[in-house]
Design brief:
Elements: E1 7-12, E2 19-25, H1 30-39, E3 45-48, E4 64-67, E5 74-78, E6 83-87, H2 92-99, E7 104-105, H3 117-122, H4 130-133, E8 140-146, E9 152-155, H5 161-167, E10 176-183, E11 185-186, E12 191-199, H6 202-212, E13 218-224, E14 230-238, E15 260-261, H7 273-286, E16 291-295, H8 296-300, E17 306-307, E18 318-326, H9 327-344, E19 350-356, E20 370-378, H10 383-396, E21 400-401, H11 411-417, H12 421-431, H13 440-444
Parallel strand pairs: 2-4, 3-4, 15-17
Antiparallel strand pairs: 1-2, 5-6, 6-10, 7-11, 8-9, 8-10, 12-14, 12-16, 13-14, 13-19, 18-20, 18-21, 19-20
Helix pairs in contact: 9-10, 10-11
The chain binds flavin-adenine dinucleotide.
Residues 14, 46-53, 57-58, 68, 88, 110-112, 115-116, 118-120, 122-123, 125-127, 171-172, 176-177, 303, 404, 439 line the site of flavin-adenine dinucleotide.
């Protein structure tokens, strides 16, 4: 049997906390993935895409970590139906590069284009259009899943549906997604018409979102968590070719821009309450309530323009805290979270609020109908105990923490937040009876036992 070698490598998620030594395998063919799984060389394995989850979801301390970045072939494309079939390592950046010029865009996209299709399905990502379109699972026409037992499942919402729903949002623990078919969204241009609206408080932001979100495909609010949650709301729709000015002769071309780069770790003092307050004031002041034409890169991926922007948080890294809160009581819980942040003296570098539409059948799915708040916070000595306190409030309000962003949640709180955990465990043990798929996150949250 083909024996694959690994490289011992220190890896982290995008938050750069934790950093762990993993045994990294780099298959270049799908057949090599099963050879790695069957070699029995490691106690367990976890697939990894581009490592854009923030915490330890794609880490496997001193165990196998299968990197998917070389399994990134486009397998077929049906332009009439807009269905792309590709290997799991294809990134959103590649889809946009090749298919936006032909008039297609990902139906759901995260705030970075440097995520893979496999990683996005495993986290069942949501975009700024969840209130309208739901999560990525709604557009996955089918996927091929390889289990550690060597079984290949073709699954979709109608075929092997239990396996499908456990895999979307299953954080790589049910099997390895080898390839998937995704229904893309047809667009006429690389631009969006963005309706900016400034608000003076969280209450006002929520009221405007409620009243007008349904009229727009996309909606997101940048929140100033240091100033009572005043915000800049950005609601948007893809622009028709006829809405573009004449000088844009190719409506499907993205304007070229010079990229920026954070060349080294900033000293951790750079992002503090005072600098964040200044940045927030400036950001708020620079925006007006107006309608503007903006290209997809600027609207969806503003941070991707700055290479290694995560270094701005310094060597210790940062934690992203993203929660979903139900409609019922969610507003009050959001207000309370913002108050707690202010009392704690937190200086979230970035705070973003969205509304979620209805959730789906995934047992570990994150979205629940209501709200989601995401905050980037520089790591500090007392941050983790503070987040544990917030976790309690979120669980009490019927909410949950997003696993793709998490690095510190405790197992008991996780079980309260995800009441269908046992159902997930039972499907996993059927697909992976010997517990050969595991990750640092799965052990920390006791989804699996800590020997795996
Ligand atoms: C700037 C930024 C903005 C973001 N915005 C959003 C957002 O708006 N909405 C949102 O939902 N998420 C968002 N994310 C999170 C990101 O979309 C998810 O973490 C996504 O999973 C990252 O994909 P990846 O390829 O980097 O996966 P990785 O981080 O490498 O892995 C994530 C999970 O997927 C599993 N996985 C990877 N490949 C496979 C495979 N082939 N088969 C099975 N499992 C696999 C891994 O085991 C792991 O559990 C954002 C992240 C960043 C850095």
């Amino acid at each position: 049997m083909l024996r694959m070698r690994y490289v011992n490598q220190a890896l982290s998620g995008w938050g750069r906390f934790p950093v762990e030594a993993c045994h990294v395998y780099r298959p270049t063919k799908r057949s090599e993935v099963s050879a790695i799984l069957h070699s029995g060389a490691e106690p367990s394995y976890i697939p990894r895409g581009l490592g854009r989850s923030y915490g330890d979801a794609a880490l496997n301390l001193k165990r196998g970590t299968i990197l998917f970045t070389h399994l990134n072939r486009f397998l077929s494309f049906d332009p009439a139906a807009g269905i792309l079939e590709c290997e799991a390592g294809v990134s959103f950046a590649e889809i946009i590069h090749y298919l936006l010029p032909r008039g297609f865009f990902p139906p759901v996209t995260p705030g970075t284009k440097y995520a893979t299709v496999g990683g996005a399905i495993a986290a069942d990502i949501h975009g700024k259009n969840h209130h309208r379109d739901g999560s990525l699972a709604n557009f996955v026409v089918g996927l091929r899943l390889l289990t550690p037992e060597g079984q290949l499942y073709e699954c979709s919402a109608n075929r092997n549906s239990e396996v499908f729903w456990a895999t979307v949002g299953g954080m790589g623990l049910t099997g390895i997604i080898l390839s998937a078919e995704i229904a893309l969204h047809r667009v006429e241009s690389a631009y969006l018409v963005v309706d900016y609206r400034k608000t003076r408080s969280l209450d006002e932001t929520l009221a405007v979102m409620e009243e007008s979100d349904a009229q727009h495909r996309y909606s997101v609010a940048w929140i100033d968590a240091l100033a009572r949650g005043r915000s800049v709301l950005m609601r948007a729709d893809h622009a028709a070719a006829s809405e573009l000015p004449r000088h844009l002769t190719n409506p499907l071309a993205i304007p070229k821009r010079v990229g920026l780069r954070v060349p080294f770790d900033f000293p951790s003092l750079v992002l503090n309450r005072r600098t964040v307050r200044c940045f927030n004031r400036l950001y708020y002041a620079l925006h007006r309530s107006e309608r503007l034409l903006t290209d997809v890169e600027r609207y969806f991926y503003p941070l991707d323009r700055i290479d290694h922007w995560n270094r701005a948080y310094g060597k210790r890294g940062f934690l992203q805290y993203q929660v979903a809160l139900p409609l019922d009581g969610g507003r009050e819980a959001l207000q309370e979270l913002v108050r707690c942040l202010a009392d704690f003296g937190a200086a979230p570098g970035l705070a973003v609020l969205k509304r979620f539409g209805v959730g789906n059948a995934a047992p570990l799915g994150f979205p629940i109908q209501g709200y989601t708040l995401a905050l980037d916070m520089p790591d500090s000595r007392d941050l983790v105990p503070f987040l544990h306190q917030l976790d309690q409030r979120v669980a009490y309000a019927g909410g949950r923490v997003y696993l793709a962003k998490d690095a510190v949640l405790r197992p008991e709180t996780f079980a309260r937040m995800y009441p269908r955990l046992d159902e997930f465990r039972s499907i996993k043990s059927r697909l992976d009876p010997h517990g050969r798929l595991s990750s640092s996150l799965a052990r920390r949250l006791r989804i699996v036992d800590d020997t795996q």
